[in-house]
Amino acid sequence: MFFTRLIAFALAGFSASVAISADLPAAPEPVDYVYVCDSYGDRFYAIPGTQTCLRVSGRLRIEYRLNDMADTGGSAWARDKNGTSTRVRAYLYTDSRTLTELGLLRTYTELRWTKDPGRALALSFENGYIQWGGLLVGRADSALQFFTGYAFNVTDQWVNDNTVNRFSYTQDFGAGLSLTTSVEDGTDLRYNGSYDLGKTLTGTVDGPLVMGDRVTIADARVEIDDVTLYGGHRVPDVMAVLRADQEWGMAQFGVGVHQIVASKGAKALGLDSRLGWGLNGGVTVALPDIEGAETTVQAAYSDGALKYVAVAYPNGVRDAAVDIDTGERGNARAWAISGGVLLPYTDRWSTAIDASYTQVDQKNVFVGADGRLPDLNAWSIAGNLVWSPVSGFKIGGEVQYTDIDFSKSSDYVDTDELRATFRFQRTF
To answer: Which end of the chain has less Cβ packing within 10 Å, N or C?
Structure first.
């Protein structure tokens, strides 16, 4: 009897436990938590459910500028010009990385929003590329680029600072040595220009001519009074760059070839399509006894590829030209030497100084109403003092001076510029 009651009591307890457990919630599904990807650097986090690590970062920069305070060539302090100006610029960066069996797969993008008073908000797509091992495709800095300056350099820089659409491969030889072969869209590497001839010239040209409203065509003869140097894009620029990264610093040497496709109008004047080329080399050395301090020097030369030397020139400069009186034709040549030094005094204070000297030779060719294309030499120096009260936040002031002297045979007036900039910048 006792045994029968014990079994009945056990069965009753089991039934009750089943009833209670039926009312409990089901066990939760496993959750993919975000974790830090230390192997790729700071602030990389895994995307849940994938093997990809992502970093999203940004920057906000605010500047107050005192524009050209010098008096040669027309000061910005004239009554109808802006002696002072402001700028606000925001940056957004994304960097994703995935380790594959065939190497690291990386995508990188950079967007910029710029607001200058009196102008519409400007959005620019600065960089966007895919890297897979040594392969890089997309929009990035030109492979020939090396040193772009330590200082703010708010005015146009006299250095190679070009962003292009490119297809390149880097072969790593080990011991810090590498060779990059790059094929780049030459449209971004042109220094174009037009000629206001001041009179109508008649010539012959094969096929239709489209030069704008002031060009007429009659019986296979063309009348031209305004000519653009470049025609359409044909062959991309090709570059080869050898680089060494060592404990003492780094060094780079590169060469590039650029095609000048003469427009129909330029061809009618006698300027045939031709090749330009250029080279660039530089060395960066870490300075002893000061953490983060370094100095750089670089030199560049170009023949018909002026952007291999500098990103911007004054009006009247172009890659090639033809003299409408003598028929002399040829490429413009330029060379430059530039460098700088970065000196962090402490973890809060630093100074940067940049300097450059550039010469351009255009053979003083005569192009009509625009006169003779100028030869020029220019030098520039900039220096700043920057305070970093907390990590990622900088407050600094900079002064920059540029002097440009044109050849006496041209109608261009020598000019100099003295500018000052006060900047707040937060990187996060």
So the answer is: N
Q: Which residues are 384's β-sheet partners?
A: 352, 398
Q: Rounded to whole angstroms, how far apart are CA atoms 33 and 281?
A: 47
Is there a contact between 398 and 154 (Cβ–Cβ < 8 Å)?
yes
Phi, psi of 224 (to 5 degrees): -125, 130
Q: Is 220 helix (H, G, I), strand (E, B) or coil?
A: coil
pLDDT digits (tens, 9 = 90+) for 346-404: 999 999 999 999 999 988 777 766 678 889 999 999 999 999 999 999 999 999 999 99
Strand partners, 254: 241, 280
- Per-position DSSP letters for 204-245, written without gaps between them: E-SS-----TT-EEETTEEEEEEEESB----S-EEEEEEEEE
**Residue keyed to tokens 């610093």:** 249
Q: Which tens digits make up the pLDDT trace of 121-149?
A: 999 999 999 999 999 999 999 999 999 99
Q: How far apart are CA 367 and CA 412, in angstroms?
A: 14
Q: Are 367 and 195 in contact (CB under 8 A)?
A: yes
